[in-house]
Amino acid sequence: MTNSERRHGYQVFHNYLLKRNFLQWQNSLYAKHFATRESAYAERKRIEQVIPEDAKVAFIYLTDKQFGMIDVFYGEAKTPKPQDAPEQFLLL
């Protein structure tokens, strides 16, 4: 597989995640809230079908409490912006 083919595969995967309403937190970190564990698992099954051939993907499941303990900083002021704590979060 050429580098061009790899890049294309990753771009297709990136676009798929965005169309599925994932938030891109960093270059290779995507997150999405799910109301139930079952819906998160169902989404994971869909994503497994479109993962590029040579990609490495990890699924991390967080509880509300764990997500609520994340400190996120924006800009130079280093002040965290408040976030609504979802019931469950899936990170890729």
UniProtKB/TrEMBL annotation:
User: Which keywords belong to this entry?
Assistant: Antiviral defense, Endonuclease, Hydrolase, Magnesium, Metal-binding, Nuclease
Annotated organism of origin? Photobacterium pectinilyticum
A single MF term (Gene Ontology): endonuclease activity
SUPFAM superfamilies, per database record: TTP0101/SSO1404-like
Q: Which residues cross the membrane?
A: none
User: Which family does this protein fall into?
Assistant: Belongs to the CRISPR-associated endoribonuclease Cas2 protein family.
The question of whether Nuclease is a record keyword is answered with: yes
Its recorded name reads CRISPR-associated endonuclease Cas2
What cofactor does this one take?
A: Mg(2+)
